[in-house]
Automatic annotation (TrEMBL):
A family per Pfam: Rieske
Organism whose genome encodes this protein: Amycolatopsis minnesotensis
GO terms assigned for molecular function: dioxygenase activity
Name of the protein in question: Bifunctional 3-phenylpropionate/cinnamic acid dioxygenase ferredoxin subunit
Domain (Rieske): residue spans on this chain: 2-96
Length: 105
């Protein structure tokens, strides 16, 4: 597991980018925390820089949208999902379990 940040450092509706084996975005939305690959599957853009609405993030480059719960794209131009990672909150810090990767087909 890697430490992403303190809970207090990630306000509702925001994201933080962390480096692991690949860049990962951690989002705080609707009272939950989600972690997905940071790089859009359509083109090289940081999803942490995107717009969060509910459980979805819109890529800042070409407006592809991804479901933070599943990693699945919800509209074009993205056609491939991004990996999701389990998030654990412990002692006021947010951790991402990078050993467990989920890829939905």
């Amino acid at each position: 597991m890697i430490r992403a940040c303190d809970v207090d450092d990630l306000p509702e509706g925001e994201a933080v980018r962390v480096l692991a084996h690949v860049p990962i975005s951690v989002f705080h939305t609707e009272g939950e925390y989600y972690a997905i690959d940071d790089t859009c599957s359509h083109q090289d853009a940081s999803l942490a820089d995107g717009w969060v609405e509910g459980c979805f993030v819109e890529c800042p480059l070409h407006a592809a949208s991804f479901d933070l719960r599943t990693g699945k794209p919800t509209c074009l131009p993205a056609k491939r999902p991004v990996r999701t990672y389990p998030v654990v909150v412990s002692d006021g810090a947010i951790y991402v379990d990078t050993a467990v990767q989920e890829m939905t087909a």
